[in-house]
Amino acid sequence: MRDLSIVLCGEAGSGIQTVERVLSRVLKLAGYNVFATKEYMSRIRGGMNSAEIRIGSRRVDSFVDKIDIIVVLNKGAIKHLENRISERTVIIGEKTEVVENERHLGNFVPIALREISEEIGGEIYKNMVSVGVLVGLFRVRDEIIEDYIKSYFSEKGTDTIDNNIRAVKKGKEISVELAKRTSLNIDISQVDGVDKEILINGTEAVALGALAGGCNFISFYPMSPSTGIAVFLAQHADEFGVIVEQTEDEIAAINMALGAWYAGGRALITTSGGGFALMVEGLSLSAMIESPAVIHLGQRPGPATGLPTRMGQEDLLFTLFAGHGEFPRVIYAPGSLQDAFSMTQNAFIIADKYQVPVFILTDQYFLDSYYNLPDLDILEMKNEFQIKEVSKEYKRYEITESGISPRGVPGYGDGLVTADSDEHDESGHITEDHEIRVRMVKKRLEKMKFLEEEVIPPELIGSENYKILLVGWGSSRNVIKEALMESNRDDIAFLHFKQVYPLAGEIRKYLENAAKTVVIENNATSQFGRLIKLETGFEFEAKLLKYNGLAFSVEEITEFISKL
Predict the structure, then answer these.
(1) What is the CB neighbour count within 10 angstroms for residue 421?
(2) Rounded alpha-carbon distances, angstroms, from residue 323 to 262, 357, 407, 532, 550
């Protein structure tokens, strides 16, 4: 067994997040490679949510359908996950919570979680009993789990810490009996050095990348799944000197960020599709005043409120064509946590250098998934602030060969730094002169030629002598990569795009070298496929599209590959 999948399932408010957090971090500290992700309903309490934790001898970084062990916390869990439960799945939980589906009782191991937790101090401790059962199966040393509990519950007081340790120990005792009563044979190896690695999710990777890019201001209006970026930066605002502003609405958020850039700051905006819809006028304003802007957009299924806590890749074309008028932009779509970090850092560098909006597209699955990494590599590019001291002769929108005008800020020099949403001349004064209008449009669009030279090329995974080429973008990277490796076919390769606009110039070469091309996306209309056709004229022969609000699994992609 190279890896094992544990799924926790229950109602919102039943403590799934606590179990997931404690278990994944303790197993990592014990030397196991860990991946975790979650799916949840748009409810504060009730409904049915689940979290998956994969533990592997090798690195694990993608979602699988298979469930080796399921921990049932509330009635309804079996029905919720029925399509993923096999005859080999071991089910753990209270009998009263599992009895709803008799055909799964053959692999059911009843544990009196409620009774045990009441003996310790209350039902609140049943989650830590579950943690004890699971860490016991992996033979995690007592000192590792106890040290983590002391740290995690450090603000709760001695009684709470002691009771949680008792709960874990009780669970570990049960795990001995559990191992005897099931066919579970956990022989996953611990790996030297993993305990010293970092364990982060997509939200933290984007936020840390923003800090590496010099971000010192963030404005936002709460909207899942993007809010976590602002929460993380607020938690560390004093450490890094970041101002975090929750505005009254999304219109204020983008305008406040543009004001921060105008004053010399480096601002991040974080939102989701519905919030970005309200920001579109501000996006056009940033283009007209040639202000840098970095916008993180955590995608989710629409239209309107759609599925607010689910994942989708449905905002690519919206991001590409948003705004009235014509102006350049850059769109990144990281597929790994390292990409999320380095590309967010790069977003600030590119936005500042070319005075254009730069987007970072993620989604709920990407932001809520985490796994262990040795470290995060900071780009060698320096955060050179492109602000110039201005003289009295300063022209904010001076015509240059590159289209990039020297950017000043108020109070730094003797010149006047103007910003106006109307068309303007080189000094920034309003004009309706037709010739000046043409020159200013050409000046702004001239930046595209230089932005195309900064494109991050796609990543080819698999055989260079491929006959079939899979194409994907954003968060599907790790799932498709693992499925391709599992398929062990040397006639198939995977081309992953971490920058989706502007497109890399060599894309046609990759596509034309294949006998068959397939685009894989989490939307209904193949938005990236349409973009490639628009830019190159190339049309994909086949498409694999998923838009039910859930991410692709390794098994789904593997099965699809087997039929090619």
Answers:
(1) 12
(2) 20, 11, 23, 21, 29
pLDDT, residue 308, reads 96
CA dist 463 and 465 (Å) reads 5
DSSP β-ladder status, 330-332 and 357-363: parallel
pLDDT of residue 509: 95
CA dist 396 and 406 (Å) reads 7
pLDDT, averaged per 10 consecutive residues of the chain (564 residues), comes to 91 87 96 97 89 96 96 90 90 77 69 89 89 92 94 90 93 81 79 97 98 97 97 97 98 98 97 98 98 98 96 98 97 98 96 97 98 89 81 96 96 93 96 97 97 97 97 98 96 98 95 97 98 96 97 98 94
Two structure tokens written together for 301: 């299924």
Distance CA 282, CA 419 (A): 13
Give me the phi and psi of 57, to 5 degrees please: -70, -35
DSSP 124: G
Q: Is 70 helix (H, G, I), strand (E, B) or coil?
A: strand
DSSP state of 230: H
- Tokens standing for residue 264: 């010399």
Which of 424, 454, 484 terminates a domain? The answer is 454
Cα-based distances in Å from 397 to 96, 444, 478? 71, 10, 43
Task: Show the tokens assigned to 433.
Answer: 């002169």
What token pair was written down for 176? 């001995």
Q: What dihedral do alpha carbons 317, 322, 326, 332 form, nearest 10°? A: -60
- Residue 490 near residue 465, CB atoms below 8 Å: yes
Sequential DSSP letters for 180-193: HHS-----PPP-TT
Question: Are 217 and 348 contained in the same domain?
Answer: yes
Q: What secondary structure, in 3-state letters, does 245-263 show?
A: EECCCHHHHHHHHHHHHHC
Whether 214 and 312 share a structural domain:
yes
DSSP state of 13: T
Same domain, 153 and 76: yes
Give the Cα separation of 393 and 98 in Å (integer).
77
What CA–CA distances, in Å, run from 74 to 15, 51, 89?
Answer: 11, 14, 17
The single residue listed with the structure tokens 């919102």 is 12
361 and 256 together in one domain: yes
d(CA 191, CA 194): 6
Q: How many domains does the chain have?
A: 4
Are 3 and 26 in contact by the 8 Å Cβ rule? The answer is no
Q: What is the CATH number for 515?
A: 3.40.50.920
**Structural domain of residue 403, as residue ranges?**
387-454
Task: Tell me if 23 is assigned to some domain.
Answer: yes
Determine, yes or no, domain membership for 53. yes
Instruction: Give the pTM.
Output: 0.96
Q: Is residue 382 part of a domain?
A: no
Question: Given its phi and psi angles, is residue 74 left (phi above 0), alpha (psi -120 to 50 degrees) or beta?
Answer: beta
